Amino acid sequence: MTRKQKRLAIIGGLGAVLAVAAGLIFFALRDQIVFFYSPTEILEKQIAAGTPVRLGGLVKENSCARAGEVTDFVVTDGATDMKVAFTGLLPDLFRSNQGVVVEGAMVGDGTFSATNVLAKHDENYMPKEVVDKLKASGEWQRDAAADGAGAMPEVLADDNCAAKSLAQAVAATGT
Asked: For the residues of 48-70, what is the DSSP string, one character each?
């Protein structure tokens, strides 16, 4: 066998080993490759308690309850509702009827214990402070038709899901 043939045989063998390794990895992770599961998918798959997963859906309207740093709310996909418990500060974009992805695990009683909450927004989102500065400088260009369609809704005073800012949370605790 010539040097060129040996080199091609080694490269071909390494390629085959890498292909088999990649296949085994993808086979082992086939259920974890998705970004998140809906509440219906989590119930259908009967995910074991303690298994880390991501749950995605909409925060059900008027489903939030706060007790100190603990927030209980319901995530829905329209077909199934799932109760979620989260300890900590919620993101500023978190509110009722807003998309959310929560990371955590199922608990034995059927609730989802979240360790991280990610609020979703559309591509047209712009922080209120930036909008206010653009309006003040006369640079705001969004027309009235787009204003209602793509703008983030204002936080309603009676929305019990509306997140408090860090400054409001600190002021409320008095520290």
From this structure: PTT-EEEEEEEEPTT--EEETTE
Q: What is the CATH number of the domain that holds 73?
A: 2.40.50.140
In a domain, 18, yes or no: yes
Same domain (yes/no): 80, 158: yes
Distance CA 120, CA 80 (A): 20
Q: Examine residue 139 and state whether it is found in any structural domain, yes or no.
A: no
Q: Name the residue with tokens 């008027």.
A: 62
Domain of 98 in residue numbering reads as 39-122+154-173
Task: List, for residues 67-112, the tens digit of each pLDDT value.
Answer: 888 899 999 888 889 999 999 888 888 888 888 889 999 898 888 9
Residues comprising the chain, all counted: 175
Provide the strand spans (E) within the chain: 52-59, 65-67, 70-76, 81-87, 99-106, 112-119
**pLDDT tens digit string along 7-56?**
999 999 999 999 999 999 888 776 666 578 888 888 888 888 888 888 88
Count of CA atoms in the C-beta half-sphere (13 A) of 130:
8
Q: What pLDDT, on a 0 to 100 scale, did the predictor assign at position 17?
A: 96
Same domain, 160 and 86: yes
